[in-house]
Design a protein that fits this description.
The chain is an alpha/beta fold and 194 residues long. 36% of the residues lie in helices and 27% in strands.
């Protein structure tokens, strides 16, 4: 379906191994519900949910082609702990507010956008894990105020190394409920990030 340009060992490292690195985090190993925002071709959701079969994974993407692919994989592999949903994050929130122990996002947007989209889904005590590159610290600085507004704080940054690169898990913990007015419309988030 032409959803990724990677193949061979590049595919295994940048998609499979990169995704499975999340299971080094106790918050992900212990979670029973995960929302993957912008799931794309199913990374990190497929590797994480297949290895951790107690985890119910909701795959969310606004692109129909990607969700059709996810649905086909779920059916063909009989993955009963997966659900694929075609919707925008700011729209899917209805009825799903604060209902996931963990939320992930990989290569979707900057933290200044992601925090407002992801954190309303996280249960109090749960985590949002953003998979980031070398400039993660600049992104964290840009969202300090937003995290306070959304009832969260950075709990840890976990560096992980693959054979040809490194990445960072920015783990944001939810301490209190997020006000119901978040997330705002996507255009408003882009125009005026928290």
């Amino acid at each position: 379906m032409n959803l990724t340009s990677l193949s061979g060992t590049g595919f295994i490292e940048r998609n499979i191994a990169d995704s499975l690195s999340l299971l080094r985090l106790s918050a992900l190993r212990d979670a029973e519900s995960l929302l993957d925002i912008g799931c794309g071709a199913g990374f990190p959701s497929f590797p994480v949910g297949i290895v951790s079969d107690k985890l119910h994974v909701t795959m969310l993407d606004a692109t129909r082609k990607k969700i059709d692919f996810a649905g086909q994989v779920i059916r063909e592999l009989d993955l009963r702990n997966f659900t694929a949903v075609c919707a925008r994050a700011e729209d899917f929130i209805r009825g799903k507010r604060e209902s996931f122990e963990a939320v992930t996002a990989r290569a979707v947007a900057g933290l200044n956008i992601l925090c407002e989209l992801a954190l309303p889904y996280v249960k109090t005590g749960g985590v949002f894990v953003a998979m980031k590159g070398e400039k993660y610290s600049e992104e964290i600085e840009s969202v300090r105020r937003a995290l306070g507004i959304l009832g969260c704080g950075v709990e840890q940054v976990h560096k992980y190394e693959l054979s040809s690169s490194a990445g960072y898990h920015v783990v944001i913990k939810k301490y209190r409920q997020t006000a119901g007015l978040y997330p705002r419309k996507y255009a408003d988030i882009l125009k005026n990030p928290l």
